[in-house]
Amino acid sequence: MTEARNRPSPRPLQTPTVTPDEIRELLKTVYDPELGVNIVDLGLVDEIRIDDGRARIRMTLTTPGCPLHNSIAGGVERLLKLQPGIREVTVELVWNPPWSPERMSREARRKLGLS
């Protein structure tokens, strides 16, 4: 429980034009509730596109049958819709290539005891 309190709070971006790098940083505040690691460090985010206020996020999950897919994808959508300059959000879940632990950051591996 204390870990949730230590997570960074998402802050709205200040610029009306957002970049994929800024979106990637924001997505570090969206956590996989089962693993307690953010979706960027888990290697779940494949692609971020921004075009004329439309954000398109291609991402995967650790397993196709992930019971929390609506929670994670919905968290991404809700967070991005709060950002100035973003008027539409599409979250596309993809399964190819499949997720594997090799996609995780060093920090995520350390946190999960895999390094």
From TrEMBL:
<feature type="domain" description="MIP18 family-like">
    <location>
        <begin position="21"/>
        <end position="92"/>
    </location>
</feature>
<dbReference type="Pfam" id="PF01883">
    <property type="entry name" value="FeS_assembly_P"/>
</dbReference>
<dbReference type="InterPro" id="IPR052339">
    <property type="entry name" value="Fe-S_Maturation_MIP18"/>
</dbReference>
<protein>
    <submittedName>
        <fullName>PaaD-like protein (DUF59) involved in Fe-S cluster assembly</fullName>
    </submittedName>
</protein>
<dbReference type="InterPro" id="IPR002744">
    <property type="entry name" value="MIP18-like"/>
</dbReference>
<dbReference type="InterPro" id="IPR034904">
    <property type="entry name" value="FSCA_dom_sf"/>
</dbReference>
<feature type="region of interest" description="Disordered">
    <location>
        <begin position="1"/>
        <end position="20"/>
    </location>
</feature>
